[in-house]
Specification:
single chain; about 475 residues; alpha/beta; 6-stranded antiparallel beta sheet; 16 strands; about 40% helix; about 20% strand; binds aspartic acid; binds magnesium ion
């Protein structure tokens, strides 16, 4: 079998963890061709982001502190692995780069990517040493992106072609290669990153490029669950999910992979397995193409929740029957780089609501006030006078019921909202995608966990095996 194995930050967080990851690769490599993808050591990306912003604002002391702690942390693992010199030289290059940023007094997104990329370069060097294997950064492995620094998009055809060219010799020769996750480069060779959590994306891109049979995502969780076990103690591990289900769960922030990372695997129908490095013999969760012979018949498989959300409603008579308001709203939010989690419009056309994270609500409010409200003038609720106004619900949760089996099954929504109503929970907004794989709704922050528990019971998710 051709395998891609990706290790997350906690799976390479110390010398012991790196050695353990290496032993998992070695045992798989006895019977399979393995390409390894690795994240930065746990917490390192956060420190590097902190470092780039400290350098950009001229905070030399904070930079010195962070550089020293990165050095101590990495050398503790690098020395026993015999790569202390190489790691130390790499950290010297990082210090030089930070010195340059301090001298210029600003850190552009392009430069920030150059700084953040060091996390994966360092971990790759160390895991490569533990495995005595050839190492590649993402660009050397063939991933080319546009120049949207911080969250670059791969140029698919070129990347697929190059990945095949660069990695197939290893795969065919049954040699293990270690590739740094998360980082890539533009066509001109400028370093880019694929966005937070982007190493999973690297893994699926490489899997698609080499035509892998499976992609194994190693982390510190057993797999995906029917609900957050902190909210529902009887929550169960899900043994298999379809891509559509996993993508929906990822959107709702469940401990899943980023939906973007699942796309290459779904497009090339490559099975993804989520596995726990701390319990490697556990069954994990298998994510694959929909397969009527094996898919669970249950209409709802999982009940994820997104907390700390806020809902902004743009309403008023000024938008009724007048095209362009929705475009203005979403353009303003996109330009402010606000991530929209849910969208609802009333049929009367007198209100559009968007759900964003609480961390972004003030920026969203400012952007909408400037671009939409100021244009149309203030109005009143319900649209009795023309003009537009904003309402913000500051602390809400989105709860979702996710399942492939609800597609084309009548009565699921009635069960969902019946269960919530019996708990006396007020539903503020509802969204169902036309894909019919999830039903999501907004409730107050306090009611969120109760709604999750109610749905978990309604659909008997603690019982059975699928
Ligand atoms: N190191 C990056 C991050 O923490 C990428 C990854 O771990 O997937 O976001
Ligand atoms: Mg990380």
């Amino acid at each position: 079998m051709k395998l891609v194995m990706k290790f997350g930050g906690t799976s390479v967080a110390s010398l012991d963890r790196i050695r353990h990851a290496a032993s998992l690769v070695e045992s798989a490599a006895r019977t399979h061709s393995v390409i390894v993808v690795v994240s930065a050591m746990d917490g390192v990306t956060e420190q590097l982001i902190d470092l780039s912003s400290a350098a950009g604002r001229g905070d030399e002391e904070r930079c010195r502190e962070l550089l020293a702690s990165l050095r101590t942390h990495h050398l503790a693992a690098a020395a026993p692995l015999g790569v202390a010199d190489a790691v130390s030289q790499m950290l010297d290059r990082l210090s030089t780069l930070v010195g340059g940023i301090l001298a210029v007094g600003e850190c552009t997104p392009r430069t920030a990517d150059a700084v953040v990329a060091f996390g994966e370069r360092l971990s790759t060097l160390m895991l490569g040493a533990a495995l005595k294997a050839e190492t590649f950064d993402g660009a050397a492995a063939g991933i080319v992106t546009n120049d949207r620094f911080g969250e670059a998009d791969p140029l698919m055809e070129l990347s697929m072609f190059q990945i095949r060219q660069r990695l197939m010799p290893l795969v065919e020769g049954r040699r293990v290669g270690v590739v740094s996750g998360f980082i890539a480069a533009t066509q001109h060779g400028v370093t880019t990153t694929l966005g937070r959590g982007g190493s999973d994306y690297t893994a699926t891109l490489l899997g698609a490029g080499i035509g892998a049979d499976e992609i194994w995502i190693w982390s510190d969780v057993d797999g995906l669950m029917t609900a957050d076990p902190r909210l529902v103690p009887e929550a169960r591990l899900l043994d298999r999910l379809t891509f559509a289900e996993a993508i929906e769960m990822g959107k709702f922030g469940a401990k899943s992979m980023h939906p973007r990372a699942l796309e290459p695997a779904a497009a090339y129908a490559i099975t993804v397995r989520m596995k726990n490095t701390f319990r490697p013999d556990g069954p994990g969760t298998r994510i694959g193409p929909s397969d009527p012979a094996h898919d669970s018949p249950r209409p709802v498989r999982s009940v994820p929740i997104l907390r700390s959300m806020a809902m902004i409603t743009v309403g008023g008579g000024g938008m009724i029957g007048r095209p362009g308001t929705a475009a203005a709203i979403f353009t303003a939010l996109a330009e402010a780089r606000i991530n929209v989690h849910m969208i609802c419009q009333s049929v009367s056309e007198a209100a559009i609501s968007v759900v964003v994270s609480r961390a972004q609500v003030e920026r969203a409010r400012t952007a909408l006030t400037r671009a939409v409200i100021a244009e149309a003038g203030p109005g009143t609720a319900g649209g009795s006078t023309p003009g537009l106004h904003l309402d913000v619900l500051d602390n809400i949760a989105i709860v979702a019921a996710v399942g492939e089996g609800m597609h084309g099954t009548p009565g699921v929504a009635a069960r969902v909202f019946g269960a919530v109503a019996r708990e006396n929970i007020n539903v503020t907004a509802i969204a169902q995608g036309s894909s019919e794989r999830s039903i999501a709704f907004a409730v107050s922050h306090e009611a969120g966990p109760r709604a999750v528990a109610a749905l978990h019971r309604e659909f008997n998710l603690s019982e059975g095996s699928s």
